[in-house]
Amino acid sequence: MTLSxxxxxxxxxxxxxxxxxGDAFATVALPLLVLEATGSVxxxxxxxxxxxxxxxxxxxxxxxxxxxxxxxxLMIATDLGRMILYASLPLAWGxxxxxxxxxxxxxxxxxxxxxxxxxxxxxxxxxxxxKEQLREANSRTQASTALAYVIGPILxxxxxxxxxxxxxxxxxxxxxxxxxxxxxxxxFGADEAPSRVNEGGPIANLLAGFRFVSADRVLRxxxxxxxxxxxxxxxxxGAAVIDLFIFRIRSDLAQSSAMVGVxxxxxxxxxxxxxxxxxxxxxxxxxxxxxxxxxxxxxxxMVVGGVLPLVAGAIxxxxxxxxxxxxxxxxxxxxxxxxxxxxxxxRTMAASWTATFGAACLGALFVTNLxxxxxxxxALTWVGLAxxxxxxxxxxxxxxxxSPATVKR
Length: 409
Description:
The chain has helices spanning 7-38, 41-66, 71-94, 100-128, 134-163, 165-184, 201-206, 208-215, 217-230, 240-252, 257-285, 287-307, 311-339, 342-374, 376-397. It has 409 residues and is an all-alpha fold. The protein is globular and about 50 Å long. The chain starts with 6 loop residues before the first helix and ends in a 12-residue tail after the last helix.
């Protein structure tokens, strides 16, 4: 069966496209809401760090939960929960109950639910397609996510400028309803993990994902590197680097909210290109070319965005940064799916993301405080150079990160 003829994968994919468009609205609207309420790039960093903290807290338990319960029902519940959370912001702003504390709650709790859904998302794809189709399926979902981030920010910027920033978050709330509907129409190959792996009690089960990652040479080396770049705020579509680009466009370059959306939307074309190219680059030059090459490309994008005092420089820099992100992400997600048995897949992903987002939480505070002290342009340039250096060192020392063999399920 091809991906195009796989009904369950198609419905799942369509729902995530809609959901990602809504998330793209939040990527623009939430930082702008913080900036409008406080005028502080440091507060933007606090909100981003709190979101990373929510992901960390949930990562500790997400894998164990998803490996022990009905995955699809839980994912629907997280969609509905996020719908309620994000709908609370425009409702509060409509009643002029402007509270930065509410943004903190939505950012933290929404990120925690998002992490739970994302871990389930990886397991879902692994149960919707054949093993040999994993890279193509991940490429397709990552590319459509990137395209959603082309359309979403442009529309979000226009809606923010015309109707107000809080209104744009209504779209994000509605997108979660669409995602929940599509999930209700999908049937996984396994709604629950085939084995609950009860070895040594609840603590041992909770730590099983960490043990698996530590014991697997490839996953262990990947994780060390991902933690390093997390400290440079260059992991995930909600990374604090996006705060720097937004702050630079809005404040340093004195552009409108609508232009912020256009810049981020056009930049996201790079993410689509990176996702589409990742399987091809991996087949031709190996996994390391995607993993370290994508990270180096992110660093180059940050330097370009920091050095060029033009909107075009911010767009080009953002495109290179996002392209490198998805070039690496497709390869990394696919390797984890291939190497992890289904009974441990949720916990393996959760363990990796706990360490990664723990570093990203610190990274968000670091880069935004650096921007507050030295300016967004200098912060982008310095962190970008550090990221390129990390990619070069990682590639030189990354022996074995080529095309590792998979683990049989």
